[in-house]
Design brief:
The radius of gyration is 23 Å and the shape is globular. The longest helix has 11 residues, at about 540-550. It folds into 3 domains: about 1-125, Cupredoxins -  blue copper proteins (Immunoglobulin-like, Sandwich), CATH 2.60.40; about 130-335, Sandwich (Immunoglobulin-like), CATH 2.60.40; about 345-540, Cupredoxins -  blue copper proteins (Immunoglobulin-like, Sandwich). It is mainly beta. Bound molecules: CU-O-CU linkage and copper (II) ion (CU). It is an enzyme of class 1 (oxidoreductase). Keywords: Copper, Disulfide bond, Glycoprotein, Metal-binding, Oxidoreductase, Repeat, Secreted, Signal.
């Protein structure tokens, strides 16, 4: 295995992801950021300079466990102090497992400002993927707003609340088309779209007939749940979140923010035609046009318009369609060992929309997460008092709470308290969805856990039943993942082993929801954490501690 070195500068740049020029956050002058490609077992070394003039930055390596390097997880206020303008931070960590990953900003809503890129880990030398393919493509999916993240953040924390609305454009590898037809792009010379065609030109997948291609698909959307389909072609799902799954065939696939998949596509259709790949919105009434890419059968010209129209996105509210996909995802036979057959602790997390002093928030067991000024990792490791709110957050919610209706008392509180988990214990978490503030509204939330993969033991509708539902858990071949969705009015059960010393975020991956407090903090084995680099500790009470220790 190797060490792979990268030198990055995060800065504001002009770019036109959807043919409209904006200022966004790029890396080394590019949007999306550079793709990291490594082999399992390699060490990644990213020297990250913050060239944003007036704000801090951190980068999170989504899906990478950071075993033994919790300070490199890249979460502001949790694993490290944000990197100040003009300062440099060294991210050094191992990528253990082959798979499709990505990275993104994890401070404020910087991810939604374009701070993301792909991280692809190939099998180690001498190891093989358990499936064959002739070539591969990488599709990093995102959604795009014309309003700046600063406007968005102010709106979300204003009274009255201002919602960010639906995205203007869906992007594939940072490119999309807003208010200009894709056909216009392909056919030469169409005014507005043509003028900035480099940044917003459609993605073309150039394929040969009768081959099998691996599509690596990851979603780093701010809000949108997506559905991907390719005209006339089926897909075989083989990987989810860096874990092999038992292969199964689909005509289209839902992808929630924070998830990644690999699918295999065989180019066995009429080779004289090109085909559309289409990505549309699921789970919310769409106001955003689907993003399109071209599957170009060589030697056809890439600008030859496909004969058939783009695949139709399933009805946004067809949750049964989404559920049937989720339920089919199972661990690949022989790829991983089954989970521990019982858990040491069960934490039930009720997801509700609430108000705190009239501000709209999301709460977990009636607590809306407010991050503290001193990152937890440092304050817990050095046992600094009063760095965050004390007391254990609740492990359950009142038995008379009606998940099918808006909260009777919508008031909740903000807190920075954390769940402390016994090192090496096995924990079950039940994510319970509920009705939001408005009647007859319950949303999709993709939950992402840092520092671990977890087994998805089951899903269900309505309120989780501690006896019946536990008895029905899949303990034989549950899939390992790092992100899982809760469906409207439903629950999802996961299990993980707390074997990674550190402090880890567990949160809804929808950027505005996290910003509104939709997350919790898990701390485990912090006494086993090694030497935290000083650069991670330069703020808040740990910063003060450093000064007290080093100055006379
Ligand atoms: Cu990709 Cu904490 O998130
Ligand atoms: Cu959410």
């Amino acid at each position: 295995s190797k060490t792979r070195h990268f030198k990055w500068e995060v800065g504001y740049i002009y770019a036109s992801p959807d043919c409209n020029e904006k200022v966004l956050i790029g890396i080394n002058g590019k949007f999306p950021g550079p793709t990291i490609r490594a082999k399992a077992g390699d060490t990644i070394h990213v020297e990250l300079k913050n060239a944003l003039h007036t704000e801090g930055v951190v980068i999170h390596w989504h899906g990478i466990r950071q075993l033994g390097t919790p300070w490199a997880d890249g979460t502001a206020s949790i694993s490290q102090c944000a990197i100040d303008p003009e300062e440099t931070f060294l991210y050094r960590f191992r990528v253990e497992k082959a798979g499709t990953y990505f990275y993104h900003g994890h401070y404020g809503m910087q991810r939604a400002a374009g701070l993301y890129g792909s991280l692809i880990v190939d099998a180690a030398d001498g190891e093989e993927e358990p499936f064959r393919y002739d070539g591969e493509f990488n599709l990093l999916l995102s959604d795009w707003y014309h309003q700046s993240i600063y406007d968005q953040m102010v709106g979300l924390s204003s009274k009255p609340f201002r919602w960010i609305g639906e995205p203007q454009t869906l992007l594939i590898n940072g490119r999309g088309q807003h208010n200009c037809s894709l056909a216009a792009h392909l056919i030469e010379g169409s005014g507005k779209c043509e003028s900035m065609s480099k940044d917003c030109a459609p993605v073309v997948l150039r394929v040969l007939p009768n081959k099998t291609y691996r599509l690596r698909i990851a979603s780093t959307t701010s809000l949108a749940s997506l559905n991907l389909a390719i005209g006339n072609h089926k897909m075989v799902v083989v990987e989810a979140d860096g874990n092999y799954v038992e292969p199964f065939m689909v005509g289209d696939i839902d992808i929630y923010s924070g998830e990644s998949y690999s699918v295999l596509v065989t180019t066995d259709q009429n080779p004289s035609s090109n085909y559309w790949l289409s990505i549309g919105v699921r789970g919310r009434k769409p106001k955003t046009s689907p993003a399109l890419a071209i599957v170009n059968y060589r030697p056809n010209s890439p600008s030859k318009l496909p004969e058939s129209s783009p695949p139709v996105v399933p009805e946004w509210s067809d949750y049964n369609h989404s559920k049937s996909l989720s339920y089919r995802i199972l661990a690949r036979r022989g790829a991983t060992k089954p989970p521990p057959q019982s858990a040491d602790r069960r934490i039930v997390l009720l997801n509700t929309q609430n108000t705190v002093d009239g501000y709209t928030k999301w709460s977990i067991n009636n607590i809306s997460l407010a991050l503290p000024p001193t990152p937890y990792l440092g304050s817990m490791r050095y046992r600094l008092k009063n760095a965050f709110d004390g007391g254990m957050p609740p492990e359950n919610f009142p038995s008379n709470y009606d998940v099918m209706r808006p909260p009777k008392n919508p008031n909740s509180t903000q807190s920075s308290n954390a769940y402390v988990i016994r090192f090496n214990s096995t924990v079950d978490v039940i994510l319970q969805n509920a009705n939001a503030l408005a009647v007859n509204v319950s949303e999709i939330h993709p939950w992402h856990l840092h520092g671990h993969d977890f087994w998805v033991l089951g899903y269900g509708d309505g309120r989780f039943d501690e006896e019946e539902d536990v008895a029905r858990f899949n303990l034989k071949n549950p899939p390992l993942r790092n992100t899982v969705v809760i469906f409207p009015y439903g629950w999802t059960a996961i299990r993980f082993v707390a074997d990674n010393p550190g402090v880890w975020a567990f949160h809804c991956h929808i950027e505005p929801h996290l910003h509104m407090g939709m997350g919790v903090i898990f701390a485990e084995g912090v006494e086993h954490v090694g030497r935290i680099p000083k650069e991670a500790l330069t703020c808040g009470m740990t910063g003060k501690m450093l000064m007290d220790n080093h100055l006379p």
